[in-house]
């Protein structure tokens, strides 16, 4: 497939049929809660908790393994943005861990990955049991 670069499943530019790439491009509306030059965070349209935000790199990478191999620094930025969202949403205090939040990523269909663009789910606002699902 043309346009692929770096690790398998990573592409630097947007993918025309990717829902999340189209959100980043402004072609599909999103309830954006946080954004940097390389990261985009928006509310999930089917929230599984009172706070449910998806955090993605603006560049298209299929899953966490592809992103980690292609650009480890960007993976760090995505994780940092997830924490920034948790702070912004009141899921954690600046100096502590109360009340708390969960960060989840799914890789592959057996894990429930429904969009082939790496995304972290930031969930909170209620007690989150274990094991999930």
Please give a structural write-up.
There is one protein chain. The protein has 133 residues and is α+β, with helices and mostly antiparallel strands. Helices cover 23% and strands 22% of the residues. The chain has three helices and seven strands, in the order E-H-E-E-E-E-H-H-E-E. Strands 2-3-4-7-6 form a five-stranded antiparallel β-sheet, covered by helices on one side. A two-stranded antiparallel sheet has the order 1-5.
Tell the overall outline: globular
CATH topology: HIT family, subunit A
Structure annotation, total helices: 3
The total beta strand count reads 7
Mean pLDDT: 90
Q: What fraction strand?
A: 15-25%
> Which structural class do the helices and strands define?
alpha+beta
List the secondary-structure elements in sequence, H or E.
EHEEEEHHEE
Whole-angstrom Rg: 15 Å
Q: Low-confidence segments, ≥5 residues, pLDDT <50?
A: 1-6
Q: What number of structural domains do the residues give?
A: 1
CATH architecture: 2-Layer Sandwich
Q: Measure the end-to-end span.
A: 35 Å
Order of strands in the sheet with most strands? 2-3-4-7-6
Task: Report the major sheet.
Answer: 5 strands, antiparallel
CATH superfamily: HIT-like
> Roughly what percent helix?
10-25%
List the keywords.
single chain; about 130 residues; alpha+beta; HIT family, subunit A; 5-stranded antiparallel beta sheet; two-stranded antiparallel sheet; 7 strands; globular; disordered N terminus
């Amino acid at each position: 497939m043309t346009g692929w670069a770096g690790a398998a499943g990573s592409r630097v530019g947007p993918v025309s049929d990717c829902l999340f790439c189209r959100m980043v491009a402004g072609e599909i509306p999103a309830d954006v809660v946080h954004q940097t030059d390389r990261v985009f965070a928006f509310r999930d349209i089917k929230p599984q908790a009172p706070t449910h935000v998806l955090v993605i790199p603006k560049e298209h990478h299929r899953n966490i393994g592809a992103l980690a191999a292609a650009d480890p620094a960007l993976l760090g930025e995505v994780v940092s943005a997830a924490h920034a969202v948790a702070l912004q949403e009141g899921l954690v205090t600046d100096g502590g861990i109360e009340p708390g939040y969960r960060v989840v990523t799914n890789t592959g269909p057996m894990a429930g990955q429904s969009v082939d663009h790496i995304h972290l789910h930031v969930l909170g606002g209620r007690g989150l049991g274990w094991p999930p699902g």
